Amino acid sequence: MDADEQANQPNSTATPRPAPPSSPSTFRFFDLPTELRLKVYRHLLPHGQTIEIGPQTIRAYYSPMGTPHCRLRLRLTQRPPELQNARNILGTCRRFRDEASDVLYGENVFRFELSRDRMGTLGIGNNIKWVPAAVLRRIWKCHIVVREELHRPHTFRRVRGWLKSAVDRLGDAHALRELRIDIQTGDFVLATPMFLSIQNLRLQTFEPWTKAEMAKGYQFVLEPLAELRGISDVQITGHVDEGLAKTVGEIMGKDIGWDHLVRRSYKQHKVLKKKKHAARRTPVMVSTKKFWQPELDWGAVGEN
């Protein structure tokens, strides 16, 4: 065998080349069965819980600025930590949010307490506004608790305005299936002696009225909620007549678009009022309606 033939023969003693490594397999979360994905969602997100949004989220903190009597201030933690963390998780991708949102908003109860802070210094405002409207419309189960001094005109009107704002933000595109409403009229009393107060901050506690018939005189604060429609399960408790609670619940269960609510008319009388910077008082027609009286004619609603 000449040199050219030897060069063309394969070298039997040479080490064979290793096969190229295979590409690692990619794990795709959305390839998992739906049942497994739901288990992962429930592991990451709160479920089967009551998410509280109310005065309990207030925290006191010390501010070195300002005068000595106002250094101890209140910070509002606008959303509970579990809700804020869950929303951050849902923001990872759109498909994750679409699939897992029902676990957060459908398997938890969102409880809003319309009341004042326990320190008795600042009004916390409408805490339903702490939740974005887009999130509010995804909630399936909602509890609204009103514990306030509804016998005071400004408090009654403020709470009524809060409920009206909540109805406007929910609109007709809400996902509510279960709504619980608890109305309590009472007084805030000091829970600690005056000498234990710290820089004008006094711990208060709410005591509902024991005379239910007297407390029910302010039940029409819930009238704005009668604008909601399409809620199959409604329960109204507290200082509310059973007849009114049943009627309002039935109205909220009507189909969207039902509108047979009739405004109640009140007599008017003439009074003299002086406008700002005016030289004299001018006659003005004023309604005789008291702040606690209904704006809707519930007798006419019952006939419809």
Automatic annotation (TrEMBL):
Domain of life: Eukaryota
InterPro entries hit by this protein: 2EXR, AN11006-like
Domain 2EXR: 28-112
Bias kind Polar residues: ranges: 1-11
Transmembrane regions listed in the UniProt entry: none
Region (Disordered): 1-25
A family per Pfam: 2EXR
Identification of the protein by name: 2EXR domain-containing protein
Species this protein is from: Glonium stellatum
